Amino acid sequence: MGACGQMSPRSAPSRVLRSFCSGQPRHSVAPAVAPKPPISRALPFEAIPRSSPNAWVNLYQFWRTNSFPNFHHIMQKNFQNLGPIYRETLGTYDSVHLLLPRDAAVLFQTEGIFPRRMGINSWIAHRTLRNHKCGVFLLNGEDWRSDRLILNKEVISPVGTRKFLPFLNTVAEDFAESIHRLIRKNARRSLTVDLYHDLFRFTLEASSYALYGQRLGLLDENPNPESQHFIDTVETMLRTTLPLLFLPPGVMRWVNNKLWRDHMEAWDAIFKHADKCIQNIYQEFCLGQPRKYSGIMAELLLQEEMPLDSIKANMTELTAGSVDTTAMPLLFTLFELARNPQVQTALREEVKAAAVSTRELSKVMNDMPLLKGAIKETLRLYPVGITVQRYPMRDVVLQNYCVPAGTLCQVGLYAMGRSPEVFRDPERYDPSRWTGKEDNSFKALAFGFGSRQCIGRRLAEAEMTLFLMHILRNFKIDTVSKADLKTVYGFILMPEKPPLLTFRPID
């Protein structure tokens, strides 16, 4: 796929696959992966169990019954009925779905030097129609690799991450103080609140500070309405992405014109917001302001390794991806800590032992393995994206079936995280499962894997870690309802109804 090209059509077995299945030497696998049966005995691609044979009838049923919000539950049920591998044809996609970590390991070994995840045609169509460049989320091939290597230095490397940690820490401290302010106004010395929108404001404030070196004032008592509008447009963009996901680009705008128009207008607003932030920092940069760390974009400008339009494209993607995708895991984590007081207490003791004000933040964070485990545990039960995808660069055997090169393969993260075949007592929230000697290879894939893992991974992990550190240090968290949260899928996983949480200050 080219820089902003369309995805390849559904794959069919080829002569290469037939020769592959007739006895060629199999590819090596990692030591942690169970040995595969000889390739000569592997079954053909067509033998993989299927959820539904007709792509367009299947898509019509999804639209007619409004099944998209239950996509994660449908996928989980398909694994229960069809086994740990199955095919699904839905609109323009013919996917192979995988459940087990050992199959994920084999899949990732075939991704090559230019890994490809599932493209999003509606996003690509917006960039094409508006003459915008694509960032690394949408790019492929050499264009993706060149941008990614430059971004890695400032966004995901340990050296780059350490630079923006103080920015995130300041915003996390301010959020804790904002809760204290509200509690001081309450005679009961507590605060019971739905934090859904507050967490959006926190994540946008923190990520914008790290990306652009600018505070937006979203934690003030009267936050900027323009920034709140940006949060609303991100939600609209995500909500409208899923129904458009399985349609050919030329059909999107004609199937539901309002849906398409809302999607385009949301992306336009996202680009407008990001462009405003970019222009501010670019003007300061051109004026030669005193040199100090001023966020990720300023560092990219100083490097002069990437064209300005490529910097803009990637910063816009990072801005859009940094709101809901971090706010939702934080909300789920707070809920799980509220209904698991023993876990909350253990985490608080770890935070107290690790958080010494004179120490470097990265060292403090490294001394909180249980807190890191809590974030992994949240993402196991509530992954932001319910699958991670790759197109294998060569023919591969998965679960004793031959899968051709170029086939869309999706590892079902939501179903894996709740599978008793993969995790002991999977419904239990237990961060310690990530800190012991248990083999957790290819079980924590919420941010993807390898060179195409989420570019904002370290930003999101640091944001969540520092937020939870300050919340646990300052408050005890409780919830009236201990029942499981019902979740819906709107291109990211979110609660059907946000929980009410109670915060009480620690004396």
TrEMBL record:
<dbReference type="GO" id="GO:0071375">
    <property type="term" value="P:cellular response to peptide hormone stimulus"/>
</dbReference>
<keyword id="KW-0755">Steroidogenesis</keyword>
<keyword id="KW-0496">Mitochondrion</keyword>
<dbReference type="InterPro" id="IPR050479">
    <property type="entry name" value="CYP11_CYP27_families"/>
</dbReference>
<dbReference type="GO" id="GO:0005743">
    <property type="term" value="C:mitochondrial inner membrane"/>
</dbReference>
<dbReference type="GO" id="GO:0020037">
    <property type="term" value="F:heme binding"/>
</dbReference>
<keyword id="KW-0408">Iron</keyword>
<dbReference type="InterPro" id="IPR002401">
    <property type="entry name" value="Cyt_P450_E_grp-I"/>
</dbReference>
<dbReference type="GO" id="GO:0004507">
    <property type="term" value="F:steroid 11-beta-monooxygenase activity"/>
</dbReference>
<keyword id="KW-0809">Transit peptide</keyword>
<protein>
    <recommendedName>
        <fullName>steroid 11beta-monooxygenase</fullName>
        <ecNumber>1.14.15.4</ecNumber>
    </recommendedName>
</protein>
<dbReference type="InterPro" id="IPR036396">
    <property type="entry name" value="Cyt_P450_sf"/>
</dbReference>
<dbReference type="Pfam" id="PF00067">
    <property type="entry name" value="p450"/>
</dbReference>
<keyword id="KW-0503">Monooxygenase</keyword>
<keyword id="KW-0560">Oxidoreductase</keyword>
<keyword id="KW-0349">Heme</keyword>
<dbReference type="GO" id="GO:0006704">
    <property type="term" value="P:glucocorticoid biosynthetic process"/>
</dbReference>
<keyword id="KW-0472">Membrane</keyword>
<dbReference type="GO" id="GO:0032342">
    <property type="term" value="P:aldosterone biosynthetic process"/>
</dbReference>
<comment type="similarity">
    <text>Belongs to the cytochrome P450 family.</text>
</comment>
<dbReference type="GO" id="GO:0034650">
    <property type="term" value="P:cortisol metabolic process"/>
</dbReference>
<dbReference type="GO" id="GO:0008203">
    <property type="term" value="P:cholesterol metabolic process"/>
</dbReference>
<dbReference type="InterPro" id="IPR001128">
    <property type="entry name" value="Cyt_P450"/>
</dbReference>
<dbReference type="InterPro" id="IPR017972">
    <property type="entry name" value="Cyt_P450_CS"/>
</dbReference>
<dbReference type="GO" id="GO:0047783">
    <property type="term" value="F:corticosterone 18-monooxygenase activity"/>
</dbReference>
<dbReference type="GO" id="GO:0005506">
    <property type="term" value="F:iron ion binding"/>
</dbReference>
<feature type="binding site" description="axial binding residue">
    <location>
        <position position="454"/>
    </location>
    <ligand>
        <name>heme</name>
    </ligand>
</feature>
<keyword id="KW-0479">Metal-binding</keyword>
